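Sample entry was shown:
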Amino acid sequence: MTLARKPLIMRIGNDRLARNVLGLLLIAAFLVPILNLWVPESSPFHVPSYVVALFGKYLTYALLALSVDLVWGYCGILSLGHGAFFALGGYAIGMHMMRQIGERGVYGNAELPDFMVFLNWQELPWYWYGFDSFGFAVLMALLVPGLLAFIFGWFAFRSRVTGVYLSIITQAMTYALLLAFFRNDMGFGGNNGLTDFKDILGFSLQTDGMRATLFFLSAMAVIGGYLICRMIVDSRLGRVIVAIRDSESRARFLGYRVEYYKLFVFTVSGVLAGVAGALYVPQVGIINPSEFAPANSIEIVIWVALGGRGTLIGPILGAVAVNYGKTYFTGAFPEGWLFMLGGLFIVATLFLPKGIVGTKSIIEGYERYRLRLAKYLRPYDYVKGGSGR
């Protein structure tokens, strides 16, 4: 039985690191909320609410890094604009939460968000219609990033734009959206963005129960995103996209419509990034145009490279590690945390060129080679009953 025809659970079972990481995520998804909600604060096993919220945010970053690894690690598309899909997913769910504020806003307007009242808007823009429904907002968090990825990919891939030129275009896309969303007349809060959220589905965002629920959903989203990506890359379609990554001209010569494969992977990646953004905003309580900043998209690529490009599990570990390091350095070294973080990237580039997971594979390969070499040099040690002398 070939690898591509084995059930997905068997393929994951053969990958020890993936099995361990997904197992830990699944355990954490259930255990962390229990330790936060039902274990007394005086207990050493209690998990504080701020830790739940912090790692819930890290998990949304992990899903975002996973979406970039799907297109960069396996299809060879270096996207420097995935922050745009992430931000659009966040804005979709943020618009719903703004509609839910109603008369509880500063100006007490049941129909218009506070920033629209402040700017003397007289009526709700048409593109805000429907966002009073949670289901519609979730649909838009999937559809809008996916549609943008599809439209962008349709024109870019059919025009055979590749390499650094494609990377620059993706960066230009997110920068253009940054400038657009900064405008007050766009109807998305301008520079301040959307904030002052109260609740979602009637449950306050400030309660420990909601923080634990969002953490659980984020962990399950990472697991689900990994399974979707793994299913894609282990299929025949996945073999084609890897072939496109390694030699696009040869894949095209063999008769594959390369642009269609790229378009599919890029669209799926955009949807995953949108889901990450939709889970991120309720946990941080704000979404503004700074999420479109090109620097954010470049940082996502760093997470993927540090974790291990083309491994799926590596970007998850890289995103959590880098953002935890950022949090730790800002607290421990407030004057020089940027230098500490920059030093971490330099060390990783010099000594971990294939990332955390890639380096692990190199070590395992070296150990297999060493054992094979020892067996060749000292064959009698491996003969049953041999003395080795």
